[in-house]
Amino acid sequence: MIKVTNEMLALTANTIRCLAMDGVQAAKSGHPGAPMGLADIAAVLWLRYLKQDPSDPKWDDRDRFVLSGGHGSMLIYSLLHLAGYGVSLDDLKAFRQDGSKTPGHPEYGHTEGVEATTGPLGQGIAMAVGMAAAERMSAARFNVAGAEPVVDHRTWVFCGDGDMEEGISHEACSLAGNLQLDKLVMFYDSNGITIEGSTALSTQDDVKKRFQAYNWHVLEADGHDYDQIDRAIRKALKLTGKPVLIICKTHIGKGSPNKQDTADAHGAPLGDEEIRLTKEALGFPADQTFYVPEDVRALFAERASKTKRQRSKWRRIFKEWSAANPEKAAQWKAQYEDLLPADIEAALPVFDPEKAVATRNASGTVLNALAAKLPQLVGGSADLAPSNKTWLKDMGEIKAGEFAGRNFHFGIRELAMAAMMNGIQLHGGYRVFGGTFFVFSDYCKPALRLAALMKLPVIFVFSHDSFYVGEDGPTHEPVEQLASLRSMPNVTVIRPADPTETAQAWIAALKNRKGPTCILTTRQNMKVIDRKKCASAANLAKGAYTLWQNGEGVPDLTILATGSEVEIALAAAQQMQDKNVSVVSMPSWELFEKQNKFYRDKVIDPDCKRRLVVEAASSFGWERYAATRSFDMITLDTFGASGPYKKLAERFGFTVENVVEKARALFLK
Question: Any idea of the CA torsion for 421, 422, 428, 429, to the nearest 10 degrees?
């Protein structure tokens, strides 16, 4: 047995420093400074406290480790290699190379042991808050009083000055303090250096006071003193009632004779000569690259053996708990495997064709019906639940000390909400949704983009989806947002035409397990399309379908519409009985593109040379479906205006009369 002495910790930390230097130098790009500065803290945490088992990387009760400053990725890759995950020395040597397991920033699903894709600063902090919240929720649902807990793990975060400057850190950490997430421990790598130089160039914040104001415990330590680091962690483990911030004063590029404490160590290789000098100063072979002392390998192997025993003990506890609590065990399976009952569509409400309903209201009705069948479905809104109808009735709220509920109050924090959704989803056990007004999707896009990268099936409910917001005016009327979301890879956007399509949109979202789904809903009431006279709303799953046609064969004109504009497109087409007109409801470009060419050509017949697009948003991108010999678009390529929505509809041309006029004009070209 090798004792984890300070000398062994120093050897481990210096190994990490040298691996980081060598990896960045081999790639001729990267960030050596942060890994070198954080190496001492990482050595203590990973060798003494972090509860992870490399032989079972997805163990449900493992601790989560998040490197928020993803630019320092050689730190986590070095740790994963030493700990026995699937990162080899050859992988370290291939840092930042095409196809390697060690890309420039950590990528979830690409490298074993990476818990989240990080890099955009502050996102990792907010995702970690989501993970910590999910842990508390699972503990409240599944742990049984008087028995050993089946959920009892921590979320550990490394963050830096850049993370602290990003606004998302304020939103997420404020909410973490309000929720009293005491299983969350964050190490702040306070080295005072950013790319441009000293942090004093742009900030003089007192981080300690800031986090005390957020309702966090705040501890301080010398980030290179093993005894201080260890004492801080041990104290953090004992503190309750609040998350913990450990402010660690560190030196960027620690150990480099000429570049320590300089911006030069931040984002560029140190250079062969400086690396040689650094290795000599650290007592490492100057002529060897990617050198790992056998004592360090043995130390990590011993740690892995210990954590494997921890995981085996948990499995025994879980087996006994499952036998004693079969109903909870069944719920665990439903949540952690994200099971959808085969008859889930039977839970959908039926909407009366005689009663107009805003699709935001329809979405709320559908959501509550589905939640009754799906214990994993949780979520909330950025202080807009009454408006976007994202509240799960009689299902409890999540707040400090009470985590058994299913409704989050994210507050007016779209940035944090979206990233926390990713963290909750990454933790496992939940399908999470979040809502805000569609125009504020711009606040969500950094996290939405990461969700798409990580293939996370989070669900966004964006209400008030067009200028029909009316009196709120152009600041609240989305115009370009639809085109923006459609341009983002692996994001499924659904703009349902009526309440019945809205129900199917939720089914499509729940079945999409490979990326985020955005459901767009209206503020204004929409007619429930009479499906006895039109095609079934179940066709929404195909992204687009022929809703109605007043003839056979190739249509004379195809009208393509989405969302609230389908209603006026259908009414206009029904006034043109002298023409063979097809009305295509096209709620999702992305789902449509997944269909085979035969189906796509059946819906948008290439032989139909007259096409008209009707959508209350930017025309950008519609050419791919509309551009023919004779086409036109009724879209909105300017910002909206303030006024009653019916008046605005007339002003912008979204009326049955204008659709008919534009449609007939195509026959004159």
Answer: 20
Taken as a whole, the chain contains a residue count of: 669
User: How many structural domains are present in the chain?
Assistant: 3
pLDDT in tens, 265-320: 999 999 999 999 999 999 999 999 999 999 999 999 999 999 999 999 999 999 99
Q: DSSP per residue over 296-332, as a string?
A: HHHHHHHHHHHHHHHHHHHHHHHHHHHHH-HHHHHHH
Structural domain contains residue 32 = yes
Is a pLDDT exceeding 80 seen at residue 408? Answer: yes
Q: In sequence order, what DSSP letters do the residues of 479-498 get, joined into one string?
A: SSHHHHHHTSTT-EEE--SS
The CATH number covering residue 104 comes to 3.40.50.970
Residues 147 and 247 in one domain: yes
Give the 3-state secondary structure percentages of the chain, helix then strand then coil, rounded to 5: 45, 15, 40
Tokens of 194: 């950013």
* CA–CA gap between residue 428 and residue 334 (Å, rounded): 11
pTM of the model: 0.98
In a domain, 440, yes or no: yes
Structure tokens at 395: 């299902």
Yes or no: say if 455 and 109 are a contact pair by the CB < 8 Å rule. yes
Residue whose token pair is 């569509």: 345
CB 223, CB 249: distance < 8 Å: yes
Question: DSSP character for 63?
Answer: P
Structural Rg of the chain based on CA atoms? 28
Nearest to 106 by CA among 84, 87, 89: 87
Does the residue 532 lie in any domain? Answer: no
Domain boundary among 254, 282, 307: 307
Active-site position among 414, 477, 501, 567: 414
The pLDDT of residue 628 is 87
My answer on whether 246 and 364 are in the same domain is: no
pLDDT in tens, 418-428: 999 999 999 99
Please report where in the chains the tokens 């003494």 appear, as a residue: 48
How many angstroms separate the Cα of 83 from the Cα of each of 4, 54, 305? 15, 7, 10
Give the pLDDT band (50/70/90) at residue 2: confident
Count of Cβ atoms closer than 10 Å to residue 147 Cβ: 12
Decide if 136 contacts 142 (C-beta within 8 A): no
HSE (CB half, 13 Å, CA atoms) of 506? Answer: 32
Domain interval for residue 146: 6-307
Active site residue 414: yes
> Do the domain assignments include residue 249?
yes
Same domain, yes or no: 558 and 513: no
Residues 84 and 199 in one domain: yes
Query: Which tokens belong to 35?
Result: 């890994």
